[in-house]
Structure formats: structure tokens, C-alpha cells
Amino acid sequence: MSVLACSQCGELKHTPRSSELKTDVTKRINRAIGQLNGIKTMIENDRYCGDVLTQLAAVESAVKAISRVVMRDHLETCVVERVQAGDTEVIEEVMGLFKKFM
Fold it and tell me: What does pTM read for this prediction?
């Protein structure tokens, strides 16, 4: 189970995730970490700024892709469950999340 902090109430939320999702997201994060380490080395080795910026754009794209995967899972699981339980306040949460990623 993953543990998330509720930004409004300070309590922890638990979100069970499928092993497939965990594996996919973990691989993607590890790849992004590898890219960031490569960029760090590029900076240390005084590599050309354009090359560094290209790699930074690739990392940004990778992180956005991870966000989309997690957002989709959130919508398909947590949000659906809460709406089905009659909790429509989750819509405001989702709108806030969309604003962060637009």
C-alpha cells in the first residue's frame, strides 16, 4: 500500500495499487533518475548547454508520462470509488490536480 498525505486534513490515505502499475511506474521513475544522473554528469563535465537542455526536456517528458499513468489509475480507481460512494467532493480534488498538470 502506498501512503499519501491528505493536503486538507493532514491524515494519511492508503492507496492499494496493482503490482503491474507499481512495476511500470517504478521502471519509469528509475529511468528518469538515470537520465537525471546523466544530466548531472553532463554538467560536471561541462557538456554543451544545448545537449543538456535536450536531456532536460526528455526527463520532463518522462515525468509527465509518469504523471499521466498515475492520474489515469487515480481516476479509474480512487475517484470512481469515491463518486460511487456518493462523495462528489473528489471532483474538486481532481480539478485541482488537473490545474497542476496543465
Answer: 0.80
Q: In whole angstroms, give the CA distance from residue 23 to residue 64.
A: 17
pLDDT tens string, the chain, 102 residues long: the values are 344 445 455 566 778 899 999 999 999 999 999 999 999 999 999 999 999 999 999 999 999 999 999 999 999 999 999 999 999 999 999 999 999 988
By the 8 A CB rule, do 78 and 15 touch?
A: yes
**Torsion sign, CA atoms 70, 18, 9, 5:** negative
> What 3-state DSSP class applies to 46?
coil
> CB count, 10 Å around CB of 97?
16
- Secondary structure E strands in 1-102: 2-5, 12-15
The answer to whether the CB of 25 falls within 8 A of the CB of 18 is: no
